[in-house]
Write a structure and sequence with these properties.
alpha+beta; Protein Transport Mog1p, Chain A; nine-stranded antiparallel sheet; 3 helices
Length: 172
C-alpha cells in the first residue's frame, strides 16, 4: 500500500512511501488530476450533511444514499446509487489530553487547508483493491475525519469530487 500526501498550500505534491502494485505511473496518473479542483461544483446538485454532536458539515451529491447515522451519532456514510463500492464517511471523536509534543508534531505535518481556512492532513492511500482520500483535522480534544473511497481502478474518476468535498469540510 502506498500513501500520497498532497502539499496543497503552495500547489506542491509530495509522494511519500513506496508504491506497490499500482506503481509510480499509476500513482502519477491518479495525482495528475490535482490541478482541476472545482469542476464538480457546477455539475452536481448538492446537499449538506451536518453533525450536531461534533458540529461539522460537508456537502455531498444529492443522489448519494445515506447509510444512516452511527449508533453513537459520531458520523455517517454515503454511497453512490449505482456503485456501492464508492463511499464517503465522516466521523469525529474526542481525545483525552493532547501533549505539547503531539500538538507540535501535528502542526508540522499539516498539508491541507479547507476553504474555510482550517488546516489538516490530506492523504491518499493507494491499495491493490481500494484507494482512499482521507482528511484529518484535530482541534483541541476533537479529531475530525472525512474519507472518500473507491475501487483503485475507478479512483481517478472520483478524485476531483473527493478533493472538492474535502475543501468544503467545515467545523462550526
Amino acid at each position: 500500500m502506498s500513501i500520497a500526501v498532497l502539499k496543497t498550500r503552495r500547489w506542491m505534491r509530495v509522494i511519500a512511501g513506496a508504491v506497490s502494485s499500482i506503481g509510480t505511473i499509476g500513482t502519477a496518473i491518479i495525482l495528475s488530476e490535482c490541478n482541476i479542483i472545482n469542476i464538480y461544483a457546477s455539475e452536481v446538485t448538492w446537499k449538506s450533511y451536518s453533525n450536531t454532536h461534533y458540529s461539522f458539515e460537508f456537502p455531498y451529491p444529492s443522489n448519494w444514499n445515506s447509510s444512516g447515522n452511527s449508533d453513537n451519532n459520531d458520523g455517517i456514510a454515503f454511497v453512490t446509487p449505482n456503485n456501492r463500492n464508492v463511499e464517503m464517511r465522516a466521523w469525529a471523536s474526542k481525545h483525552l489530553e493532547v501533549s505539547i509534543h503531539e500538538q507540535y508534531s501535528r502542526e508540522q505535518t499539516e498539508n491541507f487547508q479547507t476553504a474555510e481556512g482550517v488546516f489538516g492532513v490530506l492523504s491518499v492511500e493507494v491499495g491493490q483493491q481500494t484507494t482512499s482520500m482521507t482528511l484529518t483535522i484535530t482541534q483541541g480534544q476533537v479529531k475530525y475525519n472525512w474519507r472518500g473511497e473507491s475501487n483503485s481502478k475507478e479512483f481517478k474518476e472520483y478524485y476531483r469530487l473527493f478533493y472538492y468535498i474535502a475543501q468544503q469540510y467545515k467545523i462550526n
